[in-house]
């Protein structure tokens, strides 16, 4: 997935994560006798406070990953109307001694944005205002809505293909997507933000104001330092795109993956590509697809060396469309409205960054894994990095993964009422298979509750600086979850 998960698992929470979730609050935050004053909070908000049994609560409480729906039963969900509402929620949580989670789109892979006593829901902060080459966007703006509004001005932001992901959740953890090699990560286009701090103050940060906070938000901002209530972003031209996909017979799969990884990394920045290994009980298959900021003739010229180096393709799709239409097509939607419908899937996932191309042994191990029969359905996907992503120094933002050539994701989905055991085990097996060939780092936007060394996996050498920022802006750990800094 760029920042979209293909429909095919996510995993159980470690005892360590559970212990962190139950850790005591600081002594400065004592719960009031009789529990939180929810009536008082409701009266203080411009937005709506949903309680169990109230209209809209059941639908709103659900995370996008329905694996974690049973535990997503907050005592209250604050549908905030503005930053003042968010600040009131933060102060209320401190006074009441309760935990809260911040949710922009509910896409946290581990369900951690939906399972606290209070959920601060930013879905109604979804405005998009364009000013020249800059845009001010609400944190709860669904990605496809942002694409559509920006396209009216001939602009876009570098982002993924998951249409319903909230913009803040995407941007603050990095944000891989179809124009990343051309325009950088989503966080690389962030030029400023409005943030509600852990003490309830509202500040603006950018390269000049609160620069350490601004640095930390770009790659480690999800739930760690404050609640982002507005994002100011540099926009880029939304040009016509060519969406492409090629498939190969299984006997040619290893050759195709080997050739693809070198080709995709060396391609011009305006070409982005990924490679899928689809695993199903009745067999496995592979394909490569992507997006070119350009026309079909140029695409065919660029892809010719890849096709010459591999076996005969079994299918080919090459279509040039306007930018928004290309994003809709890549997301599998007919229009913006259909893109924003709720999903009904549970899933498990894991990820790795790879700092070197996959050697022959890694390819053999992967396809040996994929050929096993009787396993759960899943997909291993690789995204080619390089380009603008890798030209940013590793310490210029909190996003440290600037030297990798590939991002891998292991994903399996299942109906919400099915047994999660087999697909979750499939993901764990895929992760183990590829771990020896990875850098040991993982993508922080693909939260993995089973990842033991998550601090170094997500943040690498930037971790000490991030811990200093955390201590400065949230010394009492008001913002907390199992993988909070």
TrEMBL record:
<dbReference type="Pfam" id="PF08031">
    <property type="entry name" value="BBE"/>
</dbReference>
<dbReference type="InterPro" id="IPR016166">
    <property type="entry name" value="FAD-bd_PCMH"/>
</dbReference>
<dbReference type="GO" id="GO:0071949">
    <property type="term" value="F:FAD binding"/>
</dbReference>
<feature type="signal peptide">
    <location>
        <begin position="1"/>
        <end position="29"/>
    </location>
</feature>
<feature type="domain" description="FAD-binding PCMH-type">
    <location>
        <begin position="70"/>
        <end position="238"/>
    </location>
</feature>
<protein>
    <submittedName>
        <fullName>FAD-binding oxidoreductase</fullName>
    </submittedName>
</protein>
<dbReference type="Pfam" id="PF01565">
    <property type="entry name" value="FAD_binding_4"/>
</dbReference>
<dbReference type="InterPro" id="IPR036318">
    <property type="entry name" value="FAD-bd_PCMH-like_sf"/>
</dbReference>
<dbReference type="InterPro" id="IPR016167">
    <property type="entry name" value="FAD-bd_PCMH_sub1"/>
</dbReference>
<dbReference type="GO" id="GO:0016491">
    <property type="term" value="F:oxidoreductase activity"/>
</dbReference>
<dbReference type="InterPro" id="IPR006311">
    <property type="entry name" value="TAT_signal"/>
</dbReference>
<dbReference type="InterPro" id="IPR012951">
    <property type="entry name" value="BBE"/>
</dbReference>
<keyword id="KW-0732">Signal</keyword>
<keyword id="KW-0560">Oxidoreductase</keyword>
<dbReference type="InterPro" id="IPR006094">
    <property type="entry name" value="Oxid_FAD_bind_N"/>
</dbReference>
<dbReference type="InterPro" id="IPR016169">
    <property type="entry name" value="FAD-bd_PCMH_sub2"/>
</dbReference>
<comment type="similarity">
    <text>Belongs to the oxygen-dependent FAD-linked oxidoreductase family.</text>
</comment>
<keyword id="KW-0274">FAD</keyword>
<dbReference type="InterPro" id="IPR050416">
    <property type="entry name" value="FAD-linked_Oxidoreductase"/>
</dbReference>
<keyword id="KW-0285">Flavoprotein</keyword>
